[in-house]
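From the shared-data thread, chain only:
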Amino acid sequence: MSSVHEYIVRGTEAGERIDRLLGNAEFMASRSAASRLIEEGLVTVNGTPVNKRYTVRSGDRIEVDIPARDKGDLVPEDIPLDIRFEDDDLIILSKQADLVVHPAHGNWTGTLVHALLAHAQDLGTLQGADRAGIVHRLDKDTTGLMMVAKSDAAQAALGEAIKIRAVDRRYVALVHGYIAPDNGLVDAPLARDQRDRMKMAVSDHPSAKQAVTTFNVLERFSAGTHDDGYTLIECKLYTGRTHQIRVHMAYIGHPCVGDQLYGSRKVKADRHLERQFLHSYRLELQHPMTGESLFFLDSLPEDLTGVIREIQCESMGRTALGDEILSSIGL
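Structure, as tokens:
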């Protein structure tokens, strides 16, 4: 059964594109979800369907018909899930490497969504059947903590929390080279690379979106015969763009070790790691329905800890923050 939402445009909102306006509405998971509904003819203004470029006027009455989507042609698959928390509205899990989050070109089976459909009877539907329960993504070979919504209300609330930066997501990354300052900030907009559509790039193209990453140095490692040293860092996202940390670190000359897309692909320097050394180790949020404070830590998987053990003899020492964070995740 579908749900219909009515929205009356305020004077201060006049002139805004309808997809952007609805993308910020509390009942909508994202701007992309709003665009899909508009394209399906499920959004009307004063009784008439519009396209996503329509600019609203003060007093416009917008009606949004959000269907209770079924699971479509997706077949649940028994893929193991490492679940750290679950209730009627929310799942917190640690995603393994080599797992795509949702179906897309080249990955129509074997995704996290297929695994979630096998695990849970109900999942948030606001992003559509192919993204059931999905609130945010991790790259295929990025591991660690993720949120999944089991209800539409939770999916909308978590999407809004990410927009207003009320969810604290932090990552551990091992990057090439020696980073001298103990902390830094990369504020550089990202867009699809014009020469390679598989990649993102720092860009001044009109389609580029703001992207902000901060980092703190945890431990430094001296250079060896086949490398220029390494720096272990904690990264915090203030925006959630595709490949954000990987692109930003490569942009400042310190690509993630093992990154096959943005790195140099030097096998020995990458310590034979065939995926990016990037792990979502910390997640802090308020429960979308109860408001309870939730905090999770996730230790590095074995392939990443193996790299740290391998280069430990080259350690130049940990920072004070490094002592605190690395001991909290078992390093």
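DSSP finds seven helices and 16 strands in the chain.
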